[in-house]
Amino acid sequence: MAVTTRFPVPGSGPAPVLQTGGMTLPAQASLWSDAWRRLRRNRMALISTVFLVLLVAVALISTVWTPFRMSAIGVTETYAPPSSAHLLGADELGRDILSRLMVGAQVSLIVGVGTQLLVLAIGVPIGLLAGYYRGPLDSVVTFVISVFYGIPDVLVAMIMVFLLGPSLANIIIAIVATRWMDMARLVRGQAMSLREREFVEAGRAAGARPPRMLFGHILPNALGPIIVQATLGVPAAILFEAFLSFLGVGVQPPTPSWGSMASEGVAAIQYAPHMVIAPSIALSLTLMAFNFLGDGLRDALDPRSRR
Amino acid sequence: MITRGMLAYIAQRIVLIGFTVLVVSSIVFLGIHRLPGDALFSEKLRGSAYTALLHHYGLDQPLYVQYKDFVVGVVTRGDLGESLVNRGLKITPLVVHELGVSAEVGGLALIFTIGLGLVLGVFAAVRQNTWLDYLLTTTSVIGYSMPNFVIAAFLILLFGVWLQNVTGGTFYYQLGGWKGDLGQMWLPAFALGFPYASIVARLTRASMLEVIRQDYIRTARAKGLHESVILIRHALRNALIPVITILGPLVIGIITGSVVIENFFGIPGLGHEFAQSILNRDYAIVIGVFTMYAALVGAANLMVDLAYVVIDPRIRY
């Protein structure tokens, strides 16, 4: 996300504007450093960050090297239990599970981060416009959001993948279609409360144009909740993809996804439990790390929720 | 408690639900009819048998006539049509029956979710910043980080494979029907509700912490009331209000979660039908189940909004 944090410093405005700017500026600057200080003290968030960095490294490494080719069939016996040659054993086609797990990390990260980037690109502008301008635009947006919330998300995503065809890009589109409202609603609420604040009024009075108002004044001040929401949206998207793949409408073979690996493992749960355990643990740990990090960010960025 | 304004509000919401259901089923109807091939394509029928079947389902008519017939059938008779795969099987009674099965498991999951979540949340709040609190808050993050199919897989592994001598490995078979065996139902209900129990616990903890610092709680203590009376009668009732706000997403989560869990445990409910009808390419049932789900979610949201009024008399519509 390439958003530079600009604080509402009015240029050559009249005196009262300068005063308001002067009042918000120190509070703003200390919010970020204060947040960083608090985040560093949160042990679970730190451990999670380390885990996620390692996960990204594994995903990057797996683009050039895996212990075995992820789609190579019969590198060992089918359903082979974990051994020193195949640390996590083999699946029903004798493929190395560790290699598949590593490639699966790519899928999960692409879906998780890609979805949230798109959700930001769609939800933030819609939320800003609806919350800042109110009126008929807001009514339409609110209605569309409530219609989208009225339909169970898994079903929307399933029907979309069903209609568009299962590919990684379509899965991301389908998940965005069910998740953009969270961001739009959050940003709308933030914009609605921020537009009543004095510094925004001062900006308007100083003659700032709408784009500058929205992206220079409203957005930077709503950045904290947006970051938290986006971070917590990543595990939700990863979980969603695993769901779809588990049901067979997600990433298609031979590309491994942790969800489809778990689903294959369930079929063999009686005689090869390692097949379901490995992807399940990878998935759970990743989701946990993102959730702990998101919680840590929330505690750090929202002083009211301090323990 | 029931005022004229509230009745008007309910009526307004019901109209909105009806509208949403219509929009959803229309989107699914038109979307599915855009797919290449036709519903009977895979049967390799020819000649008069094929045209007769097309006529039977009204598929020989132009799309707008089909759509009109569908909408009229749904609105006037609640008729969702007939299965394309199992000839003669009416969809409305089918999905209504399956809804009953799903409601049984989902209801149990909901009771379990709220019960466990409230108890854990209250405990964590009362013992704030002790090891119990840290244990419970950390466990709750782990709880909602575990996809329900992972929980289900581990439960099956534990009870169906590793403890097979104890359970006989048959704990999840022959489930469903209106008189489904409760003893067989708690496992799917647990898998369905556990992630949400963690969320309820977190919310309960947070709102309890806010409430127990307030003056009226101190007054209650000063009056010499027993601590459990204070917690349950005074604090919990007010702490429940934020918790109720997630009841809507919770119910929807359990409804969608049931798609996975019902397939996992072989429960013949609505979620099972949904996945099966997509796999069978039985478009008529796909549309029917979608319509049912849209109505269900609308009704659930309305119930939740009405529950606010019961819990918090300050809320009026």
Q: Could you characterize the architecture of this molecule?
A:
The complex is a heterodimer of chains A (307) and B (317). Chain A has 307 residues and is an all-alpha fold. Chain A has ten helices and no strands. The N terminus of chain A is likely disordered. In chain B, helix 8 packs across helix 10. The longest helix of chain B has 36 residues. The radius of gyration of chain B is 24 Å and the shape is flat. The chains are: A mainly alpha (307), B mainly alpha (317). Chains A and B meet through helix 5, helix 8, helix 9 and helix 10 of A and helix 1, helix 5, helix 6, helix 11 and helix 12 of B.
The largest pleated sheet of chain A is described as: none
What best-fitting shape of chain A do the alpha-carbon axes yield?
elongated
**CA-based gyration radius of chain B:** 24 Å
Quote the beta fraction of chain B: under 5%
Order of helices and strands of chain A: HHHHHHHHHH
Order of helices and strands of chain B: HHHHHHHHHHHHH
- DSSP summary: helix tally of chain B: 13
Structural class of chain B: mainly alpha
Question: Concise description?
Answer:
Helices cover 73% and strands 0% of the residues of chain A. Chain A has 307 residues and is an all-alpha fold.
